[in-house]
Amino acid sequence: MTIRRNMVVHQWGTPQRTVGSLNEPREREEHGIRFNEKWVYPSPIDEPSRPRERIIYWLRYDFVASYLVGSDGALVREDLAQFFAGSTDRQAVPDGCRCS
Question: What residue ranges do the domains of the chain occupy?
């Protein structure tokens, strides 16, 4: 399964903080992950372990990895492909749209 940016935004909204940019040519490395854009979401309340934040890494349009950061700072890699498995439609539809 390919994780798309709109799937993530539909599920968790726009990130509170971003590092880098889709169009930034410079790549970075963190936790062994190469990326040019990082999205940070604070305190994901939908997770039973109550992590401090969710970090999602992108390399251009491609999803690279997702981690939950525990209250102790420990990183746990997420399997977003499994999370989104079985989802048939992750497109946001604007309010009032009568799309078919």
Answer: 5-84
12-34 per-position pLDDT tens digit: 899 999 999 988 889 999 989 99
pTM, rounded to two decimals: 0.80
User: Burial code of 25-44, b = ≥16 C-beta within 10 A, e = fewer?
Assistant: eeeeeeeebebbbbbebeeb
Give one word for 43, left, alpha or beta, with left for phi > 0 and alpha for psi -120 to 50. Answer: left
